[in-house]
Each structure stands twice: as structure tokens, then as C-alpha cells.
Amino acid sequence: MARRASGTRPRNRTGNAGSGESGVGPTGTGAASGLRGEDLVLRYPSMEAPVIDGERLVATPGAVTALVGPNGSGKSTLLKGLARQLAPEEGSVLLDGRDVHSMGTKELARKLGLLSQESTSPDSITVEDLVYHGRYPHRGFFETLTEEDRHAVDRAIELAGCGHLRDREVGSLSGGQKQLAWVAMVLAQDTDVLLLDEPTTFLDLHHQLEVMDIIGALRDESDITVVVVLHDVEQAARLADEMVALEDGDVRARGTPEEVVTEELLADVFRIDAEVERTDRGPRITPLRPRHGGGGDAVEADSPPTDAPRIE
Amino acid sequence: MPCDSLRHHRRVDLRVTRDPPGGVPVSRESALGAASGGATARERRFRWLVDPRLVTTALASVAVVVAAGLVQVSFGAYSMTLGQAWAAVFDPDVIFNRQAWNAFLLGGELPEMSQESLIVWNIRLPRVVVGAIVGMNLAVSGAIFQAVTRNELASPFILGVSSGAGLMILLVLVVFGGLAAFLPLVAAVGGAAAFLIVYAIAWKNGTSPIRLVLAGVIVGTVFGSVQTALFFFADDIGVVQSAIAWTTGSLSGTDWEQVRMVLPWSAVAILLAIAGSRQSNVMLLGEQTAKSLGMSIEKVRFALSGVAVLAAAASIAVAGIVGFVGLIVPHVVRNLVGSDYKKVIVGCLFVGPALLVGADVGARLALNPVQVPVGVVTGLVGGPYFLYLMRKQNSMGEI
Asked: What are the φ and ψ backbone dihedral angles of A163, each rounded to 5 degrees?
């Protein structure tokens, strides 16, 4: 019954970062799903050089892993690779130890859900109908809705907090309300692993917190494994159990938010001077000024790029 | 803690309880009574049909078809009074005569009937029936193509079907005169073949709506040029007129034979279109979402396109290439009943016939005794309607 506030949740819930690599959940009975990308090389067909060149990403079962990095650092590409939207040139993505490319499309969609950055739908579809589409991978071609489908949809709508929007047409909603509806849809998919691509970008503060809150609830009350791309480093630090910082397709740091969010990393990866203050709600970042010049030749001597932590 | 106040409502059990492997799922309802549970499930399955907007649309369309049909059967070369004509339509000797229906639908021998009944039932009514079926086919076909390409300006002929059929029609009429008896079949096959060519051109590790449409334009341009060139080799004005009637679409001279030809294919295509409407709905959420929901997008796209081509080809075989119906009707229906494809397809089954049968009244009687191709009339109606839409809506294009 006792709920913890988002700022004071236990960080030790998932144990150390490596504990989940066997694919077995920390609690044993929960059996949360592990997702890992090994030596991934990801490239868009139209591009010369790969966006991601031989990187490894392990999402701890049952935990929230946040991917952060500047624009064009390959966060979304990495997420697409994990979700099989983009076939890796080399390397593999393993879900519970199985290569996702050996799974059927529906089989995968029952285990792994993806909320893309830009989602479009016809304006006149109702929120409820949209959420029911989340049940697609659970239904056969001619199959009608089962009680299980209905329960999953009710639960997803309740969790996403959009019950009051249920009969509204998606076209009549605000951007934030739309996002809640889409979150409900991907929750109705009832997957073990959930990938979210910048779910809070373009939303007002209220809806940003709503979405963060949903992810927090997923972390605290279920054993769903979440990988989320976030633009806002502070937000990511507050939300995530683990963080991965990317720059130019390379993983520059991984670890707990306290380990990753440092002034050195912000200078090195995000090319800003900032103050990082430890609070009981996670690190607070006060951006000061942009750093000029290439990332390699740092202007100030006290933050050489090699100082960026690499936690394995 | 800004979000704490919001949190209490999210304290829900997140996971759907999965049934134990091999176990029988027992819900509370089925424990109470399996029979009543089944009935509610079936009720739920068809509840969407009782949408007042859909019912109104259907009833209004039926009224238009009936009115237009009654006008059609009342006028023609053999003059009879309205009373005579309508009495013939509702002639119980024909309606309840199994031999008559056997003759109409299966091609058996016609029973004895009065002169008026013979003319109404055997000459004037089949044209209305063919018009209605062609209207359904084109509307459903257009609706599917609009979902597949996610563009409301798509028509049944966007992926080369009309150009392939048109080219084959000209080839048969001008070059291979010996095949004239098989013209309907050849036209339909030509349309389907052109669709496959378009798909092959568009394919490069999969397709995309925009590549399909571009490939359709390429094939349409090339085939259209050849088709136009063939007109120069036509021997006489009769061949040219026949070619124009086929390539703009005409219902003149249609008979129960055409009904027999088009009915089975249409039934298959329409049933598949309704069965596939959920796939169309998911398709409308965009490729990426459809993929992440586990849709095998290329398979579904090809299958849905195939159904749409089947419907279009069947209608070409009996009526030629009737334009605009497949473009306008899904549009009208979407404005009336919303974008849920279950309702859109069902709405198309009513509005399509209303437009085509209504337009055919004009085609047949406006310039009496000259009959113009019905495609000319649908174009004359369709142009202004689109002008109206363009003025009314700010944006058109993506659904």
C-alpha cells in the first residue's frame, strides 16, 4: 500500500547492472524479460556509414533503461534496431536469449512493444478503438475480441489515465492527450518489453509528468522491461534505473543516473557547461552555456573527454 | 512530488493473467452460462452495424437505387405506361418463379411471361443490377486502395489496373479481332497483369505507398500512350466508339449474363474486403505502428491490393473502366460514417450502387435516344463534388 514518491524510490531494486544478463528476473518468480543487443551495426539503406557501429546494449529485466544523447547520436536508430524495425547489418538482438529475427512478427509483437516518435491515425477513430488495435498481435485473422482483450484494454486505459477520453475522437484531442492514448495502445499490447521513443517530446509539462508517471508505475508495479529514449537528461535521470549515453553512435557512458550524469559527461557528450547537483530526486542539471569547438578539443582543461565514465 | 496526486488511479494490476498452458480459460460469464455468454459475444460482434449514421446512409442509398431503378425500368424503346412497368417489376409470377431466377442467375431457360415482364425483367432490370454490383465493386476497391496507400485521392485504378485493361481492350478491338468474344475476360486479366507489373516495379526490399503510386503512374503513362496510338489504327468509327465505351465505362447492353459473370467474383471480393477491414484499420495507423503491432505489412498490403484488384477487374469485365466512382464513394462514406473500415466497406456497398445506378439514369435517358457511357456522367458528377470538397476542406490527401 505504501507508495514511494518518484524521487525516493529504491535504486537497489534491480541489483547491480549485470545481474539480469542471464535473462532471469531479479525476483525469480516474476521472470522479467531481458533484451540485449550484441555488436549491433545499424545503417539506413540510403546511408554510407552506419549510424551505430558495433555497440552493445543490455536492458536489465524489469528495470527502466534510458537512452540519452544529443540530436543525431543514434538513440532512435538504436531503439529501431532493438525493435526490429531496422535490420542490423551485423550483430543480433536477443529477447530472452532468442534472436528477434527468428521470431514471427506477431510472436515478437506479443513480447515487445514500440511506441514510435511520430504516430498518425485517422482523426475520427475513438480512443477506445485505437487502444483495441493494441490487441492486434493477440488476435487471429478472423478472431473476435475475447474477455482477455477487453480486460487488457480496460487496464491499459486505466493505467494511461485516459478513461475520460475513451469515447473521444483522436482528432479532437490535444497533443498530450493523444500521446496518452497512444501509450494506452502500446500498453494494451501487453508486452514484456516496452520501447518508447521520446514519449515526452513536444508535450506540455503536465502531460510530460503524466507519461513519466506511467513509466514509473510500470517500473514499480510490474516486471515490464522498459527502454526509453529521452531528450531531457534530467528527466531521464529521475526516471531511469540505468542510463546509457550515446554520442555519434557510440556508447559513451552507462550505469546508474548518478554515475552517468556528471558535469564531465555533459561537457563531453552534450557539449554544454552545466552544474550538476545531487538531490534526493536524482541529479539536478543547471545548464550554463554551450561549449564551442569540436567535442575532442575541449576548451577547458578540467574536463578531458577521457574522463567520461565507462561502467561495465 | 507533482505527480503523486495522479498516481492513485494507476494502482492497477498490470498484467493480463495468462491461462495456464493447456488449461481452459474460465471467465465469470462462462461459469454462469455458456449459452448466454455466446449470445452476447455475437451481439457485440455485430453491434457496430447499428450505428445510426451507417443505417441512415444505407437507407438513403437504397431509396436512391430503388427510385433510379424504377425510372430505368419505366422508359425505353418499347413504350409502356408507368403502371404497366411497375406492375411488371412487382409481377409475382416472376418474383416467386424459381425457373425465372434459375434463368436469370444460372442461365437456364426462361419461363413464359408477359411481354411487359419480359422487357422489364430481361432487358431493363439486369442493367440496374449490373450497375449496382459494379458500383459496390468499385467503391470497395477504391476504399481498400485508399487504405493501402493511406491517401484519400487513390482510386481503384491507381495501381495500373485501368491502363492495363484499356490497353488490352484496344489491342483486342484493333489488332486481335478474333478475341472479341473474350473481351471482358481479356480486359480483366490485362488489368490484373498491369497491377502485378506495377508491384514488381515498386518492389525493392519491400514496397511503400509512394513507390506503388509512382510505379502506377509510370505504367499508366506508358500503357496510355500505346493505347492512344492504337486508336490511329482503328478501321472505322464503330471500333473507336466501342473502344471509348469500354475505356470510359458503359452499362448499355448489359444482360443477366453479365450479372452471372460478375456476381461470384464480387461476392468473394466483398467478403474478403469485410474480413480484411481490421487489417485496413491497422494499416491506417501507419507502416511503423502496423509493423510494431506485428503485422506482416508486405503480405497484408499485397493481399488487400489483390482483393481490390479482383473487385475492380470484375467490374471492368462487365462495364469497362468506370471512373470516379471508386474515388468519390469511399470519400463520401468516410464523411458520413467515420474512418472505421468495417463501416466504410459496408457503407460503400450501399453508396456505390446509389451513385452508379443514379448516374446511369442520366447516361441512358438524358440524351435519349443517344446513350452516353455512364463513365461520362460519373465524371460530370465527380468533378464538381471534388471542387466542393476542395473548397470545404482545408487539407486533402492523407487519411
From this structure: -60, -35
The DSSP H or E segment spanning B141 is helix B125-148
- Is the Cβ of A44 closer than 8 Å to some Cβ of chain B? no
Please list every residue in chain B whose beta carbon sits closer than 8 Å to the beta carbon of residue A190. Answer: 15-16
Which of A127, A149, A185, A122 lies closest to B341 in space, CA to CA? A122
CA B63, CA B273: separation in Å to the nearest integer? 24
* pLDDT, tens only, B277-311: 999 999 999 888 999 999 999 999 999 999 999 99
Give me the residue from A85, A119, A122 closest to B399, CB to CB.
A122
DSSP 3-state helix, strand, coil percentages of chain B (rounded to 5)? 75, 0, 25
Strand ranges across the sheet with A90-95: A52-59, A35-42, A90-95, A98-99
Residues B335-386 have pLDDT tens digits of: 899 889 999 999 999 999 999 999 999 988 888 778 888 889 998 888 888 7
Q: Which domain holds residue B345?
A: 124-392
CA distance B283 to B155: 17
Dihedral sign for Cα atoms in the order A183, A185, A189, A190? positive
Residue B169: which CATH number? 1.10.3470.10
User: How close B281 gets to chain A, by Cα (Å)?
Assistant: 8
Q: Is A156:A187 a contact under the CB 8 Å cutoff?
A: yes
- Contact call for A221 and B11, based on CB within 8 A: yes
Give chain B's domain count.
1
CB atoms B16 and A155 under 8 Å = yes
Say how far apart CA B18 and CA A153 lie, in whole Å. Answer: 15
Question: Given the DSSP bridges, would you call strands A98-99 and A225-229 parallel, antiparallel or unpaired?
Answer: unpaired
Task: Locate B215 and state its grid cell.
Answer: 510505379
Average predicted confidence (pLDDT) for chain B: 84
Contacts of A124 (CB under 8 A, 6+ apart): A169, A170, A171, B334, B338, B339, B340
Q: Is B26 on the interface with A (CB under 8 A)?
A: no
**Average pLDDT in chain A:** 82
Q: Is the ipTM of this complex over 0.85?
A: no
Query: CB-CB: which of B27, B281, B294 is closest to A137?
Result: B294
In three-state secondary structure terms, B207 is: coil
Q: Does B14 reside within a domain?
A: no
Per the CB < 8 A criterion, the answer to whether B248 and B373 are in contact is yes
Q: Do B2 and A218 touch (CB under 8 A)?
A: no
Q: Is residue B64 part of a domain?
A: no
Question: Where are the alpha helices (H) located in chain A, listed in sequence order?
Answer: 75-82, 105-111, 127-133, 147-159, 175-188, 205-221, 233-239, 257-260, 263-268
Segment B176-189 shows an average pLDDT of 83
Q: How far is Cα B261 from Cα B106, in angstroms, rounded to an integer?
A: 10
pTM: 0.83
Q: In a 3-state reduction of DSSP, which class is residue A55? A: strand
Residue B143 lies in a domain: yes
**Residue B59, in any domain of the structure:** no
Query: What are the φ/ψ torsions at residue B56 (nearest 5 degrees)?
Result: -60, -45
Residues of A in contact with B294 (CB under 8 A): 104-110, 136-137
* 3 state SS of A40: strand
User: What are the grid coordinates assigned to B135, written together?
Assistant: 458500383
Give the CA count within 13 Å in the CB-facing half-sphere of A172: 9
Assigned C-alpha cell, A11: 535504486
